[in-house]
Amino acid sequence: MLDENYCGRYLFFCYICILHFYFNLNAMQNNRPPSIKNWADDDKPREKLKDKGKEALSNAELIAILIGSGNFTESAVALSKRILASVENLNALGKLSREQLITFNGIGEAKAITIIAAMELGRRRRSEDTGKNIKITSSKVVFEIMQPIIGELPHEEFWIIYLNNSNGVLHKYQLSKGGITGTVVDVRLVFKVAIEQNATAIILAHNHPSGVLYPSEADRKITKKLKTAGENLDIRVLDHVIITENSYYSFGDDGIL
C-alpha cells in the first residue's frame, strides 16, 4: 500500500498544478484582444462592408474577411495589419508565396491559398480591363496595357499587340514564354496571326524580370528581324517595349527601331 503522506503530497502537487494552469489561462485570456464578434457592428469588417460598402474598408479589413480569423493573440484585422506591414504594398503582397505566407502565426495553408487566389483575381481583372477599344498613341499606353499582364512575372514572356489602320488594338497574343533570361520568337507565327487578324501594324512587348530596362543584343536582333519581315508583308513594326514592374523602355522613343 502507498504511504498516506506520499499520497497527500501527490494530491497537493496536483492541486498546485491545476491552480497554476488556471491562473495562467486567465492571464492569457485577459491579455487576448476581444474577439471580432464582440466589436461594434461598425468595426466588424463583414458588417461594415454590408452597411457602408467596400470602399469604406481598409486593406487590412478586406484581408481579414478573406482569412476569417486571427490567432490566439491577434484578431483577423490585427494579423492582416501585421502581414501588410511586412510588405511595401499590395503588389508586393501578391508576390508572396504560400511558403512565405504560412510563416505568419495564424496563417495556415488554406488561408494562404485564399490570399494568393484573391491577389491573382485582382491581377487578372486589371489585365482584362486594359487593351479594350484602346488606341495606341504612345509607348506609355503600351506599358499601361502590358504591365498588368507581364510586369510582375518571375519569367520572361514575349507578346505581340496587333493594330488596325487607326492604331486601335485588335488583339494581344502571347508569342512565347521562357525562363528568367529569355524567350524564343517565331517570326512566321508573328505574321501568321497578323494576317488572321487583318492587322496593318504590330507592337512588340516583353518583360525583363531582372528589372533591367536596357535592351540586350538579342532584343535588338529580333526587333530588326521582325521589322524587316514586316516590311516585306506591308505590316509595320511600330515599337518594341520592354516592361518591368514599375517602368518601361521603348525602342521607338529611343530612336533605335
What does this structure look like?
With 257 residues, this protein is an alpha+beta fold. 48% of the residues lie in helices and 13% in strands. The protein has helices spanning 4-31, 45-52, 59-67, 76-85, 90-94, 98-101, 109-129, 139-150, 187-196, 217-233; strands at residues 157-163, 169-177, 201-207, 236-243, 248-250. The chain has a five-stranded mixed β-sheet with strand order 2-1-3-4-5, sandwiched between helices. β1 and β2 (169-177) form a beta hairpin. α3 packs across α4 and α7 (109-129) runs antiparallel to α8. The chain is elongated and about 105 Å long. It starts with a helix and ends in a 7-residue tail after the last strand.
**Rough outline:** elongated
CATH superfamily of the largest domain: Cytidine Deaminase, domain 2
| Total count of strands | 5
> Order of helices and strands, N to C?
HHHHHHHHEEHEHEE
Mean pLDDT value: 83
What strand order characterises the main sheet? 2-1-3-4-5
Strand content: 5-15%
Low-confidence stretches: none
Helix content: 40-55%
What profile does the largest beta sheet have? 5 strands, mixed
What fold name stands as the CATH topology of the largest domain?
Answer: Cytidine Deaminase, domain 2
**Rg, nearest Å:** 29 Å
CATH 2nd-level architecture of the largest domain: 3-Layer(aba) Sandwich
End-to-end Cα distance, whole Å, is 99 Å
Given helix and strand content, the structural type is: alpha+beta
Task: Give the total of domains.
Answer: 2
So what's the CATH class of the largest domain? Alpha Beta
Number of helices: 10
